[in-house]
Structure formats: structure tokens, C-alpha cells
User: What shape does this take?
Amino acid sequence: MQVQVSNDSAVSVAVGALVVPVFATDTLEGVAAEVDAALDGALADVLASGEMSGKTNEVALIHAKDSPFKRVLLVGLGERSKLTAGALAKYAGTAVRYLGKRGVHEIAIVLPNGVEAGLAASFIAEGALAGTLDTTMYRTEVDKPVVTETVKLLAGNADPAAVEAGMKRGAVIGEAVNAARTMALTPGNDMTPTHLAQRAQELAADAGLGIDVLDEARMRAKNMGSLLGVSRGSDEAATLSVMSYKGDPGSTETLALVGKGLTFDSGGISLKPPENMHEMKYDMSGGAGVIAAMWAIGKLRPKLNVIGLVPSSENLPGPRAMKPGDILTAMNGKTIEVLNTDAEGRLILADALCYAIELGATKIIDAATLTGACVVALGHAASGAMSNDDPFVERFLRVVADCGERYWRLPLYPDFDQQIKSEIADLKNTGGRPGGAETAGAFLKAFVADTPWIHLDVAGTAYLDTESPFMAKGPTGTPVRAFLTIVEDLAAHGFSTNGVASKTGAQGS
Assistant: This one.
């Protein structure tokens, strides 16, 4: 699908459908009022009838046979005072999915007032593209596909250059989000660690990034016993993909993005229950997010050095699989007692975090579908964020607050460090049920030394079981938007943070 900027007025644009925002008020405003006048009060009639009231993502379709546009789709934006930029992605996605499934090939979307035009254009372009993706990629006959081919953003009185720049940024982010979602949708027989590494190589080449894929021999040479331990039960070889972007060659600062790439997780010897195990193809969503975000970074060209690392393996109960009670040795020399082979994501991330530091990372953000405990704590409404550095995580949470993804900080009290101490090794890979998300974070903290680091547990947000008006059910593309938002902020404002960093992450201990 193409997204374009148009200087046509809303009442004269010739398209299959015109998308008009409506707020939850008793009166029509701005462009909505102009379109209403052109259609002899048809929009007002819809509101007066109670068919819609302007609630968020609510829709009503009006046919406009004798107008340049053939239909008008009203899309609710809720209360004007509560409008956020991120809501505009849902506004556009709702329009594309509703109209695209009804045979509309070309639509025009009005930019609402209340959000800076360039930012509005970015979110609308992103949401429009994200709205096109469905989960039916393996069907021989697709049920009601989104057929929209062109979306025009009506600039109105806004600065056309700002709208154009915003549209181009949003289109890149939308494509990156869909790339991550497509990787996550791909089943484990087609998305092995080797295939995930090949996808990283393809996207790196397309975006002009450096790429290096470590095989198991090179991992053994680096003493990555933690990652290799997880891989032992599978015939599929593990990989570690490293994508690199040098946007600021004169700087010594480098941000590392690290993503869990478990292409299928059966739980290993500690076998998961069979119900919903098929969803474990999504266990590489963090890694897919890193790969897609790195591609977008290569396209957007921020002034920042970034490396993306994706450790990838399968976790299966084969004859050589790691067993409860086994001891693994990570790249940094720390020994790990494996109490539960289903706590494997932290094991492959441990070596990747160590390697990120060896490669020169001065700040690290990792993302993983890591714990069911985080889903219990936050449901599907937000991802958990944990950190060893207060200023870094506070900056992250502030910057990504309206990126289209939600994050909530969880503590890393010293108590959690005690829970993962082993009697016979340095660490054990689970601290039990209490505070399961936080003990997983405490485990990862042991592999970043003093490097400022943020851990994002996206287990409840990387994929959803229900369809929304603006997005198909399944993978969401989290954490691509957050990665790109913090990258742009670091590029614009530098790595320094106000105040002295807390290296304990104790949060009032």
C-alpha cells in the first residue's frame, strides 16, 4: 500500500472513501462541519440518530453517490481534551481495515486538529500500514482481505513539508511493525533460528546495515554455554545475529538492542501444557522487534550508533536437551543452575547481553516474551520495564509514553537477587513463583555489569488473542515503536541523563 500527501480539500477529493474524524461532542467541528454542509447535513443526522457518538474507534459509513468521494467514513476519536498523537495510528488503522475489507481501493484521511501536523501524519501513516496486515498468510483462499492500495493524507492548511516528512517517517515505522509481525506469524517449521538469521541478513542488506551471524562453533569459541545449553535439545542449530548501524562515527557511545529469538519453545524437559503451545511460535517476538527496528533505523538514518543482537534457538526435549539440575557457564564465566528448562529465554539473553558489552555497548535495552508472571501482573495492557539505572529508565518511560505501546516500571529490589542465588552455582535460572517477572529481570541484570540497561518483558503485549478495529489479532509489533522512539530521542539529545544513575535498581530499598 502507498501512503501519499495530498493538497486536495476534503470536499473535493476524488476517492473511494473520505475518512473524517468525529469527537465525542454535540457539534461537528472543522473539516467534519465542512463535509456535513456539502452533504446537506448527513453527518449531523448520523450523530443525532445515535448511530455513533464519537467514541474512540467507533465508525459510521455514509454513502455519497453524487460527491467526488463515494463514501464518508466517520471515525470516533473520543474526547478532544484527551486526544493523543498515538491514538491517530488507531484512527487510521480502523479506517483502513473497515474500508479495505469492503472493497475500497483508495481512501483519503483527514488530519485532525489538536496534534502537530508532522506528528499526526507520522502516526496516521504508521497506523494505515499496520491496518493492512492479516493473519491469513497461509490460507489458499483469504476471507475479506484488506484491498486498499492508496491512502492520501489531506494536509489541509498544515505545512506540506512537515506533513510529507511525518508521512515518510510513519511509513517506515509501519513497514517495520509489519515486518516484525510477519516474522512472528511465521510458524516454527518455516521460522527456524537459521531462517530468522536469514531474515536479519535480508533486512540488513536492504537498509545498508552491517550484519554478522555467529554459528555454534563461534559461540563455543566465545564460551556461550548458556545459549548453547538451550539449543542442545533441537536438531536446528542456534544462531546469534548482530546487525550494526554507525550513524555517529565520531562518538564512543553505542546503544545495543537485544531481542529474544526463541523460534519455538516447548519448555524442553520441563514440558509446557499442550493447550495453546502453538502460540510459542511467538516466543521470538522480541528478536523480530530488534531485526525490524534495526531495518527502520537504517532507513531513517538517525545520528546514533546502534547494534542489534538476536540470540536464537529452539527449546525442545530432545535426547541431548539440558535437564533440570544441569549447570551451564555463560560467556562472562558465571555459572547457572538450571532448575526449570522452561526458563530458557533468560539463558539465551544472558550470553547476548555479555556479547553486546564486548562489542562496545554503552547502553542496552533488551526485549523478550519472558514470563507469564508479567502477564499476571499487567495483563495485556502494558509491558513490564525493569532497569539498573533510574535516569535511563525514567527517560525511556517519558519518551515512549505516547508511542503506541505501554510500559510500566517494575522494581528490582535486592530481595530478587537473593531469590536467584544457587547453593551450588552462581545463579539459578528461576526464583520460583513469587515475583517471577522481577526475578527474571534480576537474573539478566547479572550479565550487564555496570552498563545502563533496561529490560522489557513483552509477554503480554507482543501478541493478542482478539482482533481490534485497527489491527488483526496475533502479533502486535511490540516493541518496534518504543525502540525507534528512544533511538530518535538519544540521537537528538545525546546519551547523558540528568542526575546520578542508580546502579542498584533498588528503588527505595
Notes: The chain is about 35% helix and 20% strand. The longest strand covers residues 305-315. Residues 2-177 form a domain with the Leucine Aminopeptidase, subunit E; domain 1 fold (CATH 3.40.220.10).
